[in-house]
Write a structure and sequence with these properties.
CATH topology of the largest domain: Isopropylmalate Dehydrogenase
CATH architecture of the largest domain: 3-Layer(aba) Sandwich
Largest sheet: 10 strands, mixed
CATH class of the largest domain: Alpha Beta
Helix content: 40-55%
Number of strands: 14
Strand content: 15-25%
CATH superfamily of the largest domain: Isopropylmalate Dehydrogenase
Bound molecules: 3-isopropylmalic acid, magnesium ion
Number of domains: 2
Radius of gyration: 20 Å
Shape: globular
Structural class: alpha/beta
Order of helices and strands: EHEHHEHEHEEEHEHEHEHEEHHEEH
């Protein structure tokens, strides 16, 4: 197959980790007889530096014209003092919105070879962990109205709004149900329905929609504060975790750490079509940028998800996943997952080893 991939390397470690993923994709193309072409585009801080805005129009157009988008990471201290709508993160939110990517899937799994990288006690992780966060991605407080004003009595005041519609809740519930049908047939839906009106609607719609359309799927609710606690108390109880945009952002970082390192977690973002955006869930880690010490595995696994979910290449997906497993089993580690007796390698070497294992 011929596939054209837009690459948004972004900032910080973004260029190193996407380079690693491209190396692996090229190896897959060679082995399975595909042709992948890559088009590098600007988004985030690098776009601000080059064209004065985090998401240039050409980037949006070229991403929409591509078969899928591979993203590194955006942001860094250099751009931290810019106003909200000029920040690098605005580019990421903008591209998610422009491509209509309302469904963000973040699988947090404990790799057998990395069981000792989990900060949890051994008995909590001995039966494995595989939490799939299904995060709503184009609604909620990330995209609600916001503002600032000077309050007479309280001084400078700022506000954001959490807002969800039936349609937004239904379409992300459908994604979670379809996933659950292929797995445990159980969903835990996260909300704060004891306080928030938007959460009460969330809870009601998730249940009515799932019961009507997916009667074989069982939906349970969990308050977000309790979920945060349960993830460290008993992570094995979770399978599909359905969340709003912000709750999913927070809980996916937590789930990532519980499974060892945030450097291992990939994500896919899709809408109604097959053109998606694939990225690691971690950030741009400016403190280690350019030092060749970052872990490229999350981005490599994101590239694998692209093959499976956008290009319908399950064999190629499995080949990458298996190569990652093999390399980890062989004792090769980047600094974030390093432990005693293992062999420490840099970002480039880790990617090379994985490509070689395919
Ligand atoms: C993520 C990130 C982004 C988010 C930031 C960089 C805007 O934290 O993808 O989890 O909050 O969605
Ligand atoms: Mg996040």
């Amino acid at each position: 197959m011929n596939k054209h991939i837009a690459v948004l390397a972004g900032d910080g470690i973004g260029p190193e980790i996407t380079e690693g993923a491209i190396l692996v994709l090229k190896r897959v193309a060679e082995k399975y007889g595909h042709t992948f072409t890559f088009e590098h585009l600007l988004m985030g801080g690098c776009a601000i530096d080059a064209c004065g805005e985090p998401l240039p129009q050409t980037t949006v157009e070229r991403c929409l014209a591509s078969d899928s988008v591979l993203l590194g990471a955006v942001g860094g201290p250099k751009w931290d003092s810019l106003p909200g709508d000029k920040r690098p993160e605005k580019g990421l939110l903008g591209i998610r919105k422009a491509m209509g990517l309302y469904s963000n899937i973040r699988p947090a799994k404990l790799w057998a070879a990395l069981a000792d990288a989990s900060p949890l006690k051994a008995h909590l992780v001995q039966n494995g962990i595989e939490i799939i966060v299904v995060r709503e991605l184009t609604g909620g407080i990330y995209f609600g109205e916001r503002g600032k004003y000077e309050d007479e009595n309280m001084g400078e005041t700022a506000w954001d709004t959490e807002k969800y519609s039936v349609k937004e809740i239904e379409r992300i519930t459908r994604i979670a149900c379809e996933l659950a049908q292929k797995r445990s047939k159980k969903i835990i839906s996260v909300d704060k329905a004891n306080v928030l009106e938007s959460s009460r609607l969330w809870r009601k719609i998730v249940h009515t929609y799932a019961e009507k359309n997916y009667p074989d799927v069982e939906v349970c609710d969990m308050l977000v504060d309790n979920t945060a606690m349960q993830i460290v108390k008993n992570p094995a109880q979770f399978d599909v975790l359905l969340t709003s945009n912000m709750f999913g952002d927070i809980l996916s970082d937590e789930a990532a750490q519980v499974t060892g390192s945030i450097g291992m977690l990939a994500s896919s973002s899709l809408g109604d079509g097959t053109c998606g955006l694939y990225e690691p869930i971690h950030g741009s880690a400016p403190d280690i940028a350019g030092k060749d010490v970052a872990n490229p595995i999350a981005t490599i696994l994101a590239a694998a998800m692209m093959l499976r979910d956008s290009f319908d290449m399950p064999k190629e997906y499995a080949a990458i996943e298996c190569a990652v497993s093999k390399v980890l089993e062989s004792g090769v580690r980047t600094a974030d997952i390093m432990s005693e007796g293992m062999q420490l390698v840099g970002c480039r070497e880790m990617a090379r080893r994985i490509a070689e294992a395919i």
